[in-house]
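Input record (one chain):
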Amino acid sequence: MSVPSPTDAGFRVSTEGNGAARSIELVDRALTFDVSESLKGRLREAVRADLEVGHRSFVLRLESVETVDSSGVGVLIALHHQVAEEGGALAVCGASAHVAKVLRIMKLDRFLTVLPDVERAVRAVSDPV
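The corresponding structure, as predicted from the sequence alone:
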């Protein structure tokens, strides 16, 4: 089931794995200062709304993102903290080779759950049944 957000928001939200996780797909090619500051607020509100209705498992899809800077990394960290503070889990998936390298260089792959695909990310964040 998919309930997409407007793409002009910079992301789409849908449900993955038969309701196991909320999927947030970033649609911009660059997660840089130019888009990050306004994107951070919109993402925070969308995730807050999901958390308020009980969602605790989130997958952040980066397939469209080709480049990231420190502001973009800040978005990832802020989203992780927001979900974790509410007892939730967030996994990042679909990172390009460049984005994955940035995350490794910054040692964020030790802090964030970074997985190659959506299926593994959904399994990683899903509550045990």
